[in-house]
Structure formats: C-alpha cells, structure tokens
Amino acid sequence: MAEIIVKLDHINVSLAGRPILSNLTWEIQRDQRIALIGPNGAGKSTLMKLIAQELAADAGQVFRIAGLTWGRLEQEPQLLAGRTVLQEALSALPELDEIERELEWLANRMAQPEVYNDLEALEKSMRKHERLLHRYEQLDGQRFESKIKAALLALGIGRDRWSTLTEHLSGGQKKLVMLAKLLVQQPQLLLLDEPDNHLDLPAKRALEGIIRDYPGCVVIISHDRYLLDGVATHIAELEGGRITQYTGNYTTYANERAIRRLRQQQLYAAQQKEIARIEAAIARFELWASLVVNERHIRQARSRQKMLEKMDKIENVSDAKRMTLELNGWRGSNKVLELVNVSRTFDTGVTLFSKLNMTLWHGERVGLVGPNGAGKSALLKMFLDPESTSSGEIKIGPSIRIGYYAQEQETLNPDQDLVACIRQAAPLTQEAAVAFLMRFLFSYDQMQQPIGKLSGGERSRLQLARLVLQRPNLLLLDEPTNNLDIPAIEVLEETLNEFIGTVFVISHDRYFLDKVVDRIIELRGGSLTDFIGGYTDYLAERGYDE
How many domains does the chain have? Predict the structure, then answer.
C-alpha cells in the first residue's frame, strides 16, 4: 500500500454559519494524481485551503507526514505589481536570494584584514560560508534561473513575454507564472485550483504533460473533463460535505458512479419494500393487541420495532439538483451569417485579421478555436455590430435573432438585483421572475442581492437564464463553460444538442467541443481555417500529438 501523506479525519467546517464539510474523512497517498470534483459551492477550494493550513477545521484533525512540503495555486492568483514576468518567476525561492546576499556579505567580510588576520573569526566565517554553500547546492542555486526559464517556456510563456509587467497579464497568464514558480519549488504535494481556467488549447496541452510527469502528488480542481481524463489516477467526489473516492480517470469514474448508483437504488427499493412489510406487521400486531389485550402481540410489535431501529438504512439516490435550461430556438433564415473579405484594423494601425470569409448555415454547431490574442472574442463581437468592420461585409440573415453570452459577463449590470435583471429581459411578474430564477438554482435571498455579489458560476447561470428569455435562433457563446461546474456543463451540452437553431461557440473546453460541435474553425495568424468534425477530428487533421 502506498504511503499516506495527508489524512483528514472526521472534519467539520462551517462558513458564515453554513455547514460546508461534514464528518469528512479522506486519505491522500504519495504519487497519486487526484481530481477533486463536485458542484459549485460544495467546498472544494475550502478543502484545499484546509490541507494547505490556510484554514482551520471546526472539528476533526488533519495529519501530515513529517517534513511534507506543499504548494497551492489559487483560482485567482495575486502577483506583485511593478515586477516583470521573469522577476516574479525568479522570486519563487526567497531563501535562495537571502543565501546569495549572505554569501556575498561573507565574502566581503573575509576579505577584511580584521577577519583574515584573526584565525578564530576567519574559521567561524568559513564554517558559515560552507553551510550556506551546502544549502545553496541543495536548492540547485546554480541552475535555478535556467530552470525557471525552462518552466516558463514549457508552459508557453515565451521570451517575448518575460519583460511584461505582471499587472498587464491575463488571468490565465498569471496562473501560468505562478505554476512555473511552483514547478521549480517542487513541493511533494501540489494543490491546483482550476489551473486550466482561461488557458488556450496549446497551454492546456502543456499543462496536461506537466501534471502527468510531476514527480510528486497532485490534487487538482478542474471542470475540464478532457484534462481529468488525461491526468487523473483517482477521482475524489465532494458532495453533501463528504468525499467518495474512485480509482481511474473521469470517464472511468462516470461509468462506475452510474453503476454504483443503480445498484444503490435497487438496494434502497428492496429495503423500502422490507421496511413497509415490517411496518405493516407492527401495525397489525398493535391492532390485535388493542382489540384483545394480549402481551404476546405487544412483544411481537416491540420486537419488530427494534428490528427497524437497528437496520442500517440505505440512502436514496438523490442526484444533485440540476438547473433547468430550455433554449427554444426556431428555424429562421437558411443562410444565418456570412463574412465577405472582413478585416479589422485598430486606430494604432495594427491589423487583427484581414479578408476573412465564412458562411454559417442553419442548424450548424461551430466551434471557434485559436491561441489567446488571435481575436476570437473580437470577431464574435463584430457579429453583434456588422458595421464595425474596417473593410468587407458581415451579412446577417433577415430572420435571425442573436443571443450573446459574454465571456467577461459585461452584459450584466453588477448593481442590479437578479429579479430586476430578469424582468428587464422579459415582461414577467415578480412572482414569475422568482419562479424562473429558481429553475437556475438561485435562492430567494440571492435574488435580492446585487449581481456583483454573485460568484462567477452564478453569474454564468444568470447569463444563460437571460438567453432563454431572449428566444434566439443564433447563439453566440464566448467561453460559456468557464465557471460552470460539471453538472451545469452537462445540462448546457444536452440543451445545445436539442436546440433548434445555430450555435457559434468559442471554447477551450475540449470535452465540451467534442460533445456539441460538428465543425471547427481555427483563427490563427489573422486567417480562418475550416475543419469538419469535433475537437478530436480537428486535432487529428491538424496533426497535434495529444
């Protein structure tokens, strides 16, 4: 059996009076790569903070092996402003900087006459110098800078980015810089909280390889099922405050979970039938005892009641509550959208793309892919404003109604409450708006709060709710799976597959693309390339090695 490096024993955690983790017990073993999954709000990030000693449990204990080192990548890492990418990455080992300063100070000190002429002082300085050199070698100080640069390059951060100030980085780029620092630190336990969010497809491929090859234990929170299939050796499902662990990747987990739940449902049904039989016998004996005072009937009733009380009850299989999403599209024009020699040049003179040609037909499901910065979101927004082209023409079909999902959620007013937002999108009564929002898993208390107080996943669900009310027949979706948990993504996939209309989606979620689209368009180097099929077909034709 592999060595246990962390053990959580009967852990309870509550936040703001709400129970998050309940009597949770979990063991993490050396060299495992564990995907920690569960619905939004289940407590996955809380559990990570608990393991990293950034949070204390209300009850229970966390045991760690002696000398265990760990590093945690946060969902939204904060980098020190004013530093370049390379300066920030080189701050990964502060101890190394301190050793180098002390070595320099000692070298200067030993060059002073009052030291080198004093045998005792010189020996003392030399012994300290030797200890520091030994520690410097342990930290591989001579190769540190080259290792940092190699880590940045492996994660797709090229030399042209090393002089960029950290405050000018995207969320995904900040995560990559933090991950590079962690990789050089080489902790025995790597805790990664959604490391793939906002990463483009090449960066995700690089991340997969790094996690697979990491010489230690990794616990990763991610909603990217493709990533989890590629790296996970175990799945830990957090639901209802407790952990259930499965061996294998995400697909293995999904199959095993379905079988377990089916078996549990069968056992539950059989036990309920037995309970009903015993309860009927108790009622019968109690009735006989009341009609004819008979001690034997009373004892029989009590005996069966005790039998019920001692029975190990099998829980009913209750799926986590899923949002209800119904996008009732309609046919509209056969030619939905057409680009004719479309170009976009900024006022600075920089051309984002030029002479793009593309046609969207009714019923197509198209995925737009390409590296970050290629102009995917800019192109999508141009569909909303056909006059925004620098040259060329964007033609929208005459009976097309567009529904737009914004990646940065700028279509939502952060100061507005949820009910007002929904009533602005459609003429609903207060009661109807409340009932509608409940279908998207919002509580009544949340509905009264400003949108700005919602989490990223909650704002994503609100955007989807507004789309339903707009009744579009062309969906323009910019990273719709970002911030959604896996159950919500599965609902979105099912809904899009049943949608009567056209879907044009930007996504870095490869599993989602394989489930939803039947055509891939790549925007790279200012031009479009068409591929028939899903993401896996695109990879094969593109010649990428996954």
Answer: 4
> Is 209 among the domain residues?
yes
Positive/negative CA dihedral, 109, 114, 119, 124 = negative
Contact status, residue 474 vs residue 337, Cβ threshold 8 Å = yes
Nearest-angstrom CA–CA distance, 219 and 36: 7
Across the range 515-530, mean pLDDT stands at: 92
Taking residues 265-277, report their average pLDDT: 85
In which residue are the tokens 């990570």 written?
A: 48
Q: Tell whether 285 and 355 lie within a shared domain.
A: no
Whether 498 and 399 share a structural domain: yes
Residue 1 reports pLDDT greater than 70: no
Rg for the chain (alpha carbons), in Å?
A: 30
What is the predicted pLDDT for the residue at 336? 92
Asked whether the predicted pLDDT for residue 319 surpasses 60, the reply is no
- Give the tens place of pLDDT for each residue, 122-160: 788 788 888 888 887 877 778 888 888 888 888 888 898
Q: Exposed e or buried b for every residue in 452-477, given b needs 16+ CB within 10 A?
A: eebeebbbbbbbbbbbbbeebbbbbb
In a domain, 158, yes or no: no
Distance linking the first and last C-alpha atoms of the chain: 31
Q: How many CB atoms lie within 10 A of CB 42?
A: 21
Q: Strand, helix or coil at 364?
A: coil
Residue 546 reports pLDDT greater than 70: no
Range picked from 203-207, 393-397, 449-453 for highest mean pLDDT: 393-397
Residues 68 and 6: beta-carbon distance below 8 Å: yes
Domain around 295: 261-310
- Which region among 4-13, 77-86, 196-205 has the lowest average model confidence (pLDDT)? 196-205
- C-alpha 120, offset from chain centre: 59
370 pLDDT exceeds 50? yes
**What confidence tens digit (pLDDT) does each residue in 462-506 have?**
888 888 888 888 999 999 988 888 888 888 998 898 888 899 999
CATH number at residue 531: 3.40.50.300
* Whether residue 470 is found in the same domain as residue 502: yes
Answer yes or no: are the C-beta atoms of 189 and 70 closer than 8 Å.
Answer: yes
Alpha carbons within 13 angstroms on the beta-carbon side of residue 274 total: 14
Smallest CA-to-CA distance from 515 within 476, 474, 486 is with: 486
DSSP for 205-267, written as a single string: HHHHHHHHT-SSEEEEE-S-HHHHHHH-SEEEEEETTEEEEEES-HHHHHHHHHHHHHHHHHH
What pLDDT, in 10s, does the model give residues 412-436?
Answer: 888 888 999 999 888 889 899 899 8
Structural tokens at position 326? 């119904």
- Per DSSP, the three-state class of 287 is helix
- 273 shares its domain with 389: no
Do both 47 and 106 map to the same domain?
no
